[in-house]
Amino acid sequence: MTKKNYKTLKQYGRSELIEKKSRFIGTARPVHSEEEALAFINMMRKEFSDASHNVYAYIIRENNIARFSDDGEPGGTAGLPTMEVLKQEELTDVAVVVTRYFGGTLLGAGGLVRAYSKTAKLGVEAGVIAEMTDCTFVKICVPYDLYGRLQYLLEQENLTTEESDFGQEVSVTVCIRTELLESFQKKITENTNGRAVCTVLHSEFRPLEI
């Protein structure tokens, strides 16, 4: 059964914005639990302990957790706009901290919303948005005389070999989108006259950049 794909960040990302002498730093990273999100937020608070504010927002897929904090900024001007960036991008399993060093000029409510939104988006973009796709690992065993044909079939499907073993037979392990698994197995069987043996190993989510 194919699991539902979701969008998250591929990696840690950071970017900065200067707005009327205030310095905004957006830091984003993928997280897999609320504990991991909170640990990341605390790490950012320590790194930027001298900052005026460390605003955050995070969304966790498990148990549908979504939380944010204005960290002393006027209500609705910081944490919520940061959260809205995550929702607009349809991201989950991600946390963002937007750090502000006050530059002496008040930005007003509208200015704060724009600055926090833009900085959060810059941090997210630096982390690279990826779609996590349900993939299945399959081990394919063929006699040596069919190895060339198997390589050709894998190239047609744009599949790269994860692992190879050259023993009495050739075995290769590939990772394929789970939704394509059934048709792929049928194609392998038909093109090897049933001489290939396909064994499903396990499935996991793999990132695809978008």
Q: Describe it for me?
A:
With 210 residues, this protein is an alpha+beta fold. The chain has two domains: 6-127, Impact, N-terminal domain (Ribosomal Protein S5, domain 2, 2-Layer Sandwich); 133-209, 2-Layer Sandwich (Alpha-Beta Plaits). It has helices spanning 34-47, 79-88, 108-127, 147-156, 181-191, and strands at 6-9, 13-19, 22-30, 53-60, 65-69, 94-101, 129-142, 161-166, 170-177, 197-209. Helix 2 crosses helix 3. The mean pLDDT is 92.
TL;DR?
With 210 residues, the protein is an alpha+beta fold. The protein is built from five helices and ten strands, in the order E-E-E-H-E-E-H-E-H-E-H-E-E-H-E. It has two domains: 6-127, Ribosomal Protein S5, domain 2; 133-209, Alpha-Beta Plaits (2-Layer Sandwich), CATH 3.30.70.
The succession of helices and strands, N to C, reads: EEEHEEHEHEHEEHE
Shape: elongated
User: What share of residues are in beta strands?
Assistant: 35-45%
- The CATH topology name of the largest domain reads Ribosomal Protein S5, domain 2
Q: Can you tell me the number of structural domains? A: 2
* Alpha-beta classification: alpha+beta
- Tell how many strands the DSSP assignment holds: 10
- CATH architecture level-2 label of the largest domain: 2-Layer Sandwich
Alpha-carbon Rg, integer: 23 Å
Task: Report the biggest beta sheet as strand number plus sense, adding barrel if it closes.
Answer: 5 strands, antiparallel
